[in-house]
Amino acid sequence: MPFKPLYLACFIFIASALFVSCSSVYMPNVPNSPMLSAKNEIHASGHVSLKGNLSFNTAYAVSDHIGVLFNGAFIDQNRRKKDFSQDLVEGGVGYFTTFGKDNQRILEIYGGLGAGTTKRLYRSFEKDDIISTDLQNVRFNKSFLQVNYSTKERNSVTLFSKKFPLNYGTIFRLSHVSMTKFDRNGINQPLEDNIFIEPVFFTRMKLNKNFQLQYTTGSNIGLKNRDFLTAGSSVFTIGLIVNLGGSKIF
C-alpha cells in the first residue's frame, strides 16, 4: 500500500499525544533530514508545530559523502496560566551515501552539539487575581547522534488532476540534554540531565524540482526519571523543504 508510512506516522503521533502529557523544560526541534546525495548540494527547511515551535534546518554537502548541519528552533508561547519560551541552536557533521536501485535510497549518519535556554512561568489565580507565580530559567547543553534512512518511492498523490511524487523517511535520534543552570524564582536548583530517544517519520510531497512539502511526526522518550527535564513533547509539524543541486533523481 503506497501510504503505509503516512499511516504509521499518524499512529505514532496519536500514541504520543495520549501517553506523553507531562510538561518539560525541553522541547525537541525537528531533526534535520537533508537527504543529501552529491557534493555541493544545499538543503534548507522550515517547520512549524501545533504548539508554535519553529524549527529551521540547513545542510551542505562538502563532498560526495560528507555533510554539515546547522539547526535552530525557537518558541515564545504566552497563555493566561503559563508562558513558555525556548531558543535552541545546534550543529553537526556526518556521512551520507546513496544505494539501491537507481541509487534511490539514502542513508545518513550525523552527530553534533547544541545549546539552548528555556524560560517557563506559571501563574495561579483566585478569581481574576494572580496569587502566585513560579518562574523557571534553564540553560542546557545538548549532544546528539542520529541515523536517517529515506527513499524516493514510485508512488505519487494526485491533486487537482496533477501527480505529485512522494518521498518517505525515518529518523532515529539519540539526544543527551544536560542543564548548565537552573534557577526557580531566583534560587538555584539541582541540575538535571536526560537521554532522549526520538524516532521520527516524515513524508515529503514534491512540488517541483527544488521544493517539497513535509509532514513530520514522532515521539520523545526519556530514559531517566526526572522532575523537570522530562519527555514532555512529541514532534508533529508541517514544513517547506528546499534542495538545490545533488542527484537529479531527488
TrEMBL record:
PROSITE patterns: PROKAR_LIPOPROTEIN (PS51257)
Top-level taxon: Bacteria
Protein name: Outer membrane protein beta-barrel domain-containing protein
Organism of this sequence: Pelobium manganitolerans
